[in-house]
Specification:
Elements: H1 7-33, H2 39-52, H3 55-68, H4 74-98, H5 107-112, H6 120-140, H7 144-166, H8 183-196, H9 201-229, H10 242-259, H11 267-274, H12 277-292, H13 295-303, H14 305-327, H15 331-334
Helix pairs in contact: 1-2, 1-3, 1-10, 1-11, 1-12, 1-14, 2-9, 3-8, 3-10, 4-6, 4-12, 7-8, 8-10, 9-10, 12-14, 13-14
């Protein structure tokens, strides 16, 4: 089974999935509970949250590699959309009845917005599938300079403009960016380029420089903003953030550099965990509140914030992964998870 898979992409998926759990755990629970008066706990969460921001971009780049290097016709796209919609509908129904703070949901609302904000990615994924047949043909004509130009025009420049506005330096008309390609699609396309980029020490060192410098910049700006405002402003929650983008593309290349063509003793375990990541993404919000609000976690939190945060995240990922692994034993369910 593992021989047919791209193992380094499986590792990326596992990291990205855990990153999503970190994002949602910190964003919805712990960030509101941990005060800057506890500097060690506060900055631990800031740093953890910052690195977890690359989770969605990593998922998108992985999806781009797996989608755009194959020949998908429109009927293939329809099948993939159905495989997304059925689990989404099922988990929406469950969330509507299980999660107390979810307001009354209807079929009309299902089309307007996801029942939980975490499921926005599935809506975006449907759009990505729809554009896949066209994007494939476009990408096949791309040269190296075309990928770089696309990333600069549709990601770097809008990212700089966002910061110019945040710091009240200048406000650029939104019409300027109105015809740019979505940053979500750009991530998916750049994933294809990074998979083909030559593996050498020069590119590796450049990737480390970009990753470390952009990480430092994001953490510095994010922590300063949070301390000044007392909450997160939207630019630091957006995966199209300039520094999140630079962290993501460099991290993706580094994952490939260090793990591609490497033989690992835990290969089968890595593959099996990777196969559960989509299901974990689907159900983790159903377990998250119960685990974090449990007496076990709250007792730990009252004595050691850092340990409580780490244990809750590991528990959410582990419990959801085991559940999906067992559910996937059912042949019909396996097709959708």
């Amino acid at each position: 089974m593992s021989n047919k898979r791209i193992l380094w992409l499986d590792i990326v998926k596992i990291f990205a999935c855990f990153g999503v759990i970190i994002n949602h755990s910190l964003d919805q629970f712990f960030m509101g509970l941990i005060s800057p008066s506890r500097p060690i706990s506060f900055f631990f969460c800031i740093i953890q949250y910052s690195f977890a921001r690359i989770a969605v971009p990593l998922f998108l780049m992985t999806t781009g590699v797996l989608l755009f290097e194959k020949d998908y016709k429109f009927k293939d796209v329809l099948r993939r959309i159905i495989r997304i919609l059925i689990p989404l509908i099922i988990v929406t129904i469950i969330a509507n009845y299980k999660i107390e703070w979810v307001e009354s949901y209807s079929i009309k609302k299902f089309f307007e917005e996801p029942i939980l904000a975490a499921y926005w990615y599935l809506y975006a994924l449907v759009g990505l599938y729809l554009i896949t047949p066209i994007a494939q043909k476009l990408i096949k004509t791309f040269e190296k300079k075309d990928f770089i130009y696309l990333f600069i025009i549709c990601f770097i420049i809008p990212g700089i403009i966002n910061y110019l506005e945040v710091f009240n330096i200048i406000k650029i008309s939104h019409f300027f960016e109105s015809t740019f390609i979505s940053s979500l699609l750009v991530y998916s396309i750049i994933g294809v380029y990074l998979k083909k980029l030559e593996k050498n020490k020069k590119n590796r060192n450049l990737a480390w420089v970009i990753f470390l410098s952009s990480s430092f910049s994001y953490i510095l700006l994010f922590s300063t903003s949070y301390l000044n405002n007392g909450y997160m402003i939207s630019i630091y929650q957006d995966c199209s953030n300039l520094f999140v983008g630079l962290m993501s593309v460099s991290a993706f290349y580094l994952f490939r550099y260090y793990f591609e063509d490497k033989k690992m003793k835990l290969e089968n375990i890595i593959v099996n965990i990777s196969l559960t990541t989509f299901g974990v993404y689907l159900i983790h919000m159903l377990f998250q509140t119960d685990i974090i609000d449990s007496k076990f976690i709250m007792n730990i939190f009252s004595t050691n914030h850092l340990v409580a945060v780490a244990i809750s995240e590991l528990l959410i990922f582990s419990i959801c992964s085991v559940c999906i692994y067992l559910i996937r034993k059912i042949p019909v369910v396996k097709k959708f998870l």
